[in-house]
């Protein structure tokens, strides 16, 4: 069985082909953001997906697929919607109809969870997932019974953790997205005295005030590596406080998903604090990808679960 996965998130075009025992293709193309810009409008992102998808599908020549699965919205809740996902959905429908194969629908968030748990054989049926990315910072109570049942129990009260990192990075003069650059600067910094206080209230947290403080440090002429260290430490301490609060009540395993969870600084910091209690996907499956989406489709295909899908 070969299943195609498609995900067209806000900043990455992703396609994948999986079988029951391996990932056959995992192709991604980052969307282009002009230097100095802090992101993309939905219309521009949608246009870039439409251009990127045919290029990525050149690698699928001669591949016979048994089904296709696509993420059609950010989260599995009513009212969740972003235009960028229409690009992937449209391509998936055409592929399904022209090849007479089933089309399965899922969400970007579920794809992230599936990719993360599969990458490390995380076999829990109930757990907490921290979805940390440029557009999302949510605390999720997850139960798995054939499908994912996800309840949001916390998250940011203002901007996401990824926005915090990217906005500071762009202000420092780096290209968007800037998280990897800040991560590198922080890991290699010799100036570790600067601080940005973290703010956590139960399962909720803030980053807009922290962004303001970081921008003030930039205006004061503080060194880039010193600011990067303060920013990454603030992010890590925010997660530390959050995880301590979660452990007290839920006593469930915790897995970090999303692009921010690929940060080496954050991983090292939290592993030292919560070894054996907090899990991370493999780094390559933390960032946006279509592997999890494809595997969700494969599970539905093997179960014969065609509810809500297109069939020949």
From TrEMBL:
Record's Gene Ontology CC terms? cytosol
Every Gcp-like domain range:
60-294
Extract the coiled-coil ranges from the record.
Answer: none
Pfam families in alphabetical order? TsaD
Q: Which domain of life is it from?
A: Bacteria
What's the protein name?
N6-L-threonylcarbamoyladenine synthase
Species the sequence originates in:
Caloramator fervidus
């Amino acid at each position: 069985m070969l299943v195609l996965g498609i995900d067209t998130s806000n900043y990455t075009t992703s396609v994948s082909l999986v079988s029951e025992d391996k990932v056959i293709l995992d192709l991604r193309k980052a969307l282009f953001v002009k230097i100095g810009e802090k992101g993309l409008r939905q219309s521009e992102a949608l246009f870039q997906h439409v251009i990127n998808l045919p290029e990525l599908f050149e690698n699928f020549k001669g591949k016979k697929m048994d089904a296709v699965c696509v993420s059609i919205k950010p989260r599995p809740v009513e009212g969740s919607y972003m235009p960028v996902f229409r690009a992937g959905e449209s391509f998936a429908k055409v592929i399904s109809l022209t090849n007479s194969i089933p089309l399965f629908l899922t969400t970007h968030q579920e794809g992230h969870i599936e990719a993360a748990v599969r990458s490390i054989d995380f076999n829990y049926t109930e757990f907490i997932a921290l979805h940390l990315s440029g557009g999302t910072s949510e605390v999720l109570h997850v139960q798995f019974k054939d499908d994912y049942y996800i309840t949001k129990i916390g998250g940011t009260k203002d901007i996401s953790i990824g926005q915090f990192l990217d906005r500071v990075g762009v202000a420092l003069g780096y290209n968007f997205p800037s998280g990897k650059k800040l991560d590198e600067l922080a890991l290699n910094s010799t100036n570790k005295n600067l601080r940005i206080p973290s703010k956590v209230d139960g399962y909720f947290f803030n980053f807009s005030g922290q962004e303001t403080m970081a921008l003030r440090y930039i205006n004061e002429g503080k060194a880039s590596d010193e600011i990067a260290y303060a920013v990454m430490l603030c992010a890590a301490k925010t997660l530390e406080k959050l995880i301590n609060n979660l452990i007290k009540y839920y006593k469930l395993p915790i897995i970090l998903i999303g692009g921010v969870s690929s940060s080496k600084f954050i991983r090292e910091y939290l592993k030292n604090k919560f070894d054996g209690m907090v899990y991370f996907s493999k780094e390559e499956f933390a960032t946006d990808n279509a592997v999890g989406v494809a595997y969700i489709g494969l599970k539905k295909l093997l179960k014969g679960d065609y509810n809500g899908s297109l069939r020949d």
